[in-house]
Amino acid sequence: MKRIVALVDLDAFYAQVEELRNPKLKGKAVIVCMYSARGKGSGAVATANYEARKLGVRSGMPIIYAKRKAKNAVFLPADRDYYWKVSARVMDILQTYSDLFEQVSIDEAYLDLSQTNSFTAAERLAKKMKSEILQKEKLTCSIGIGPNKLVAKIAAGVKKPNGLVTVPEDAVPSFLKPLSVGKLYGVGPKTEGLLASLNMRSVKQLKTMSLAHLQKLVGSAKGSMLYNGARGKDDRPVQPGRQKQQVSRLTTMKKDTSSFNSLAETVASLSTLVHDTVSAQKITFQTVSLIVMSNKMEQISRSHSLTEPTTAKKAIQDTVTALLKTFLAERPDFQVRRIGVRVSGLEHAIPDSRKPATNGQRTLRTFRKPS
DNA sequence: CTTCGGCTGACGG
DNA sequence: CTAACGCCGTCAGCCGAAG
């Protein structure tokens, strides 16, 4: 049976939620920010609404750039706990449309709609989703429908905000052909630059490269992903019930420092945050990591695996403090800008008889070679 | 040979 | 005046050690 996949993407989600909380923001440029502890507006833009985007503001942009582009915009600190609550309600709605539902972030989810048996029926369902989300939560979203995740995702981005774009199987080649390679999932600035140096800028041009050549260039996994992606092929299934692989908390120090006492204090409170998260979700962990970043982008991690899975806060605390001590002994000159604590090797408490997502049987995470 | 722990880097939201 | 820049999470690839 042919697959039909939809990607639902809530438009400028953080900003939209803020506009709901405070209707006076309607019509204004709204920029939701992640501020660091440095003060003076240090931080990055999480989400800008469409008014702000018209002025050139983008996610990930330093706040101070955004201020220059949108002098009179409303700048708000991100309130992610609240956005997650709203997100959960939207996801509960979406989940009723397919058992094969996969939330991929706070504002995006894939649904396998193969049961509808036709792209037109899937599109009718998507319209229902949009109106139910609008009616119940007053939120707009953009939906892309295609024969796989790759096409659905790109389609969702074509008509934003409040869009609905369907690309049936036979329309895929002409849909992809004119796109720049950067539109393909997994092609970021580095890969795009590498391809551009070979004058491979469009999907059409990318199609002229052999599988072997691409794999030599960017590695075997990404190579086949590019090769297949250029041809609109993508076997990744919509995976319900995926479990988290790691939990981390990071923070920016007020000032760069190499002081053990000051860093140990920070690491202790981060350990508490990590522990709060995993214990609330009934997760055990077996590996603890310390992450440090210098003022010049250099990121270093040090980790230690425990002999047993545990839930103990002390295990996080003690391990990460020891890792910090060792690291500072190795690199006494290292000026820490940001620091973080991570746990991995997670085991989730099993709800009922549900099997964990990692029980083998289906591990098609990579793209397939074409026959 | 495969697997695992440990680490880095690219990427997405 | 200039340079300036969060907080998560996923996966692949590499290395050396171990099975």
Structural description of this entry:
- This protein is α+β, with helices and mostly antiparallel strands and 371 residues long.
- The chain is built from 13 helices and 13 strands.
- The protein has four domains: 95 residues, Reverse transcriptase/Diguanylate cyclase domain (Alpha-Beta Plaits, 2-Layer Sandwich); 67 residues, MutS, DNA mismatch repair protein, domain I, CATH 3.40.1170.60; 54 residues, 5' to 3' exonuclease, C-terminal subdomain (DNA polymerase, domain 1, Orthogonal Bundle), CATH 1.10.150; 121 residues, Dna Ligase, domain 1 (2-Layer Sandwich).
- Helices cover 38% and strands 24% of the residues.
- The strands form three sheets. Strands 5-6-1-7-8 form a five-stranded mixed sheet. Strands 9, 10, 11, 12 and 13 form a five-stranded antiparallel sheet that branches.
- Helix 4 packs across helix 5 and helix 12 runs antiparallel to helix 13.
- The chain is globular and about 60 Å long.
- The chain starts with a strand and ends in a 23-residue tail after the last strand.
- The protein binds a DNA duplex (13 and 19 nucleotides) through strand 2, strand 3, helix 3, helix 8 and helix 11.
Please report the number of helical segments.
13
Q: At the first level of CATH, what is the class of the largest domain?
A: Alpha Beta
Low-confidence stretches: 353-371
Radius of gyration: 23 Å
Helix content: 25-40%
Strand content: 15-25%
N- and C-termini, Cα separation: 18 Å
Looking at this structure, what is the CATH superfamily of the largest domain?
DNA polymerase, Y-family, little finger domain
Q: If strands are numbered along the chain, what order do they take across the biggest sheet?
A: 5-6-1-7-8
Mean pLDDT across all residues, rounded? 90
